[in-house]
Amino acid sequence: xxxxxxxxxxxxxxxxxxxxxxxxxxxxxxxxxxxxxxxxxxxxxxxxxxxxxxxxxxxxxxxxxxxxxxxxxxxxxxxxxxxxxxxxxxxxxxxxxxxxxxxxxxxxxxxxxxxxxxxxxxxxxxxxxxxxxxxxxxxxxxxxxxxxxxxxxxxxxxxxxxxxxxxxxxxxxxxxxxxxxxxxxxxxxxxxxxxxxxxxxxxxxxxxxxxxxxxxxxxxxxxxxxxxxxxxxxxxxxxxxxxxxxxxxxxxxxxxxxxxxxxxxxxxxxxxxxxxxxxxxxxxxxxxxxxxxxxxxxxxxxxxxxxxxxxxxxxxxxxxxxxxxxxxxxxxxxxxxxxxxxxxxxxxxxxxxxxxxxxxxxxxxxxxxxxxxxxxxxxxxxxxxxxxxxxxxxxxxxxxxxxxxxxxxxxxx
Length: 413
What we know:
This protein is an alpha/beta fold. It is built from 12 helices and 17 strands. The protein has helices at residues 14-25, 50-58, 62-66, 107-116, 163-168, 236-245, 252-259, 276-281, 306-332, 339-376, 381-396, 398-403, and strands at residues 5-10, 31-33, 45-48, 74-79, 85-90, 103-106, 123-124, 129-135, 138-143, 148-156, 174-186, 196-202, 205-211, 216-223, 266-273, 285-286, 289-291. The radius of gyration is 22 Å and the shape is globular.
């Protein structure tokens, strides 16, 4: 008899591994399909706010990651035009709870930490999904090597170009007419930066320099390209010179971070997002299929919540499915006549509960990130002045409310 997988997760990124680990913690077996032959660490690092740490604690890896990354204490925003600091806010003073936690986590360490907690064989590498079809209550997952997997439940965590999101009816994420450059710099003898988030903006660009630990710094740079800028896309040397030419008035130690960056440690990518109305009216789940992470809610990086949201998804999805699977076991003991149909309905209910819980949260994050990015990178004297005011007020107000979100524990009631 051909084997049927209970739960198949497509994509071994942050959302996929967080979901897999959440399910594993609840004793639910799952299989993760990864198209590459190794874990993908594209992006170098990501900011994890308080809400993300609550999710990491829920799956049991928070303390391990805290030991490897420094807690940052303040946010400092500066104008690239005047060179002056426009705001400096202690993270401990943000929001009514005054207990916000932010660390810049290296993506490789995060993914490897999640992977190590999973049973051997959970991840199947070199398994690219090319199409999905239905067969009764099952989903048939066609892979690029010609093989076919059968699954009772399918979760798409396969990023912005998600095959699962396409099957659900979502359109490709939209380009926001901005590019992002991300990079990482390693200093053998330490970098000497204070434990702060350094943010800069003006003249249509926005960038940040963020320490991960005592020796590693992550930086990002976002801009709206002109026709003349196209030549930098596939040329790291010109890309680096472009960034250096756009820094504006900035301290020498910040400029040195970009100057010290190796060309192989930089990457450029278009910034994309899913239109908010698609989140409100689209099918986050349908029958026994759903999406999470960037396959669900790709957003611009302007509020550092993409990774946090993916971690939230993983915990909530695992809990909703755990509740559904528990109910299935109760029904299963009462008789086997309608077992398959009941199992399908329970899984479908779990996915509906997940979609209901995540829809408004995803809408809020995508919309807020887009608006902040739009204001921060608008050009012109008036816009440059206003954007500094808006960002400072946002950091002190809206961001703490977003980061206060609690995805809850994995415990099943």
